[in-house]
Amino acid sequence: MPVKTKVKALDERTYDVCCPAVTAAPLDEADATDLARVLSALADPVRLRLLSIVASSPEVCSCDLENPLGKSQPTVSHHTKVLADAGLISGERRGKWTWWHANPDRLAAIRTALGG
Amino acid sequence: MPVKTKVKALDERTYDVCCPAVTAAPLDEADATDLARVLSALADPVRLRLLSIVASSPEVCSCDLENPLGKSQPTVSHHTKVLADAGLISGERRGKWTWWHANPDRLAAIRTALGG
DNA sequence: TGGTAAGATCGACACACGTCGATGTGACTC
DNA sequence: GAGTCACATCGACGTGTGTCGATCTTACCA
């Protein structure tokens, strides 16, 4: 049985994630590609740390990510975009700052797809 | 609190996986690197399908993977090695054939690290 | 209007990775 | 021992990705 959650990104686009559980039955190519795309967003140490920082707080400003991550501003911006495109975090522009928060439902959907 | 499971690979090496949950607190670099390494093994559509085929059966022979995956023998061998190195599957050589089975504990550990 | 500050985008570079033909390595059969 | 089969390893190729300096865009303030 497919496990899907609706996720709303910065641009208000919604999309599905994802996929029967890996352990239940052989995945078809489309489901495998979808799931691999989300996992690729997670499969980077900098993005994992970024996500953990955002998830540990109700809201985090981009400006508070550069120092803990030890990466340049363009690099941090790149990683927030990847995580946001994957639906794992969402950003809200307020004035000059962008505030990020985690989407725990998305993470839960991934756990389910991984046989949860 | 760290979530660890011992995993035994083909070469009898054992290692730990892994890591406080991403959602609990900011990950340090070492934990993030460990988790990213395992997730990288999963973040490929061919390997996800391979794992789902192996996990759906008590045991699968390498020779029964080429056709469903539509990949050459060296490519399949490469992917089984990546999954085995990550502890997600284990292989046993019997005569001319290698038989693979999934390690559900490892997948469960990843789910926990993902905030399960 | 001009200046500054936060963040996104661009361009370039180095490196990692998926893929497959060719070849190597054991194991089985005759 | 010769031949064959299953699988691993090697080498090479094209592509994808993380990184950062430079630049663009937008918002705020004097």
Total number of strands of chain A = 5
Order of helices and strands of chain A: EEHHEHHEEH
Class per helix and strand makeup of chain A: alpha+beta
Largest sheet of chain A: 3 strands, antiparallel
As a percent range, the share of helical residues of chain A equals 40-55%
Low-confidence stretches of chain A: 1-15
The spatial strand order of the largest sheet of chain A comes to 3-5-4
What is the overall shape of chain A? Answer: elongated
| Rg of chain A | 15 Å
The quaternary organization reads as homodimer
Number of helices of chain A: 5
Overall pLDDT level of chain A: 87
Q: Biggest chain pair contact, residues each?
A: A-B, 36 and 37 residues
Please indicate the percent range of residues of chain A in DSSP E strands (runs of 2 or more).
Answer: 15-25%
Our measurement of the CA-to-CA distance between the termini of chain A, rounded to an integer number of angstroms, reads 13 Å
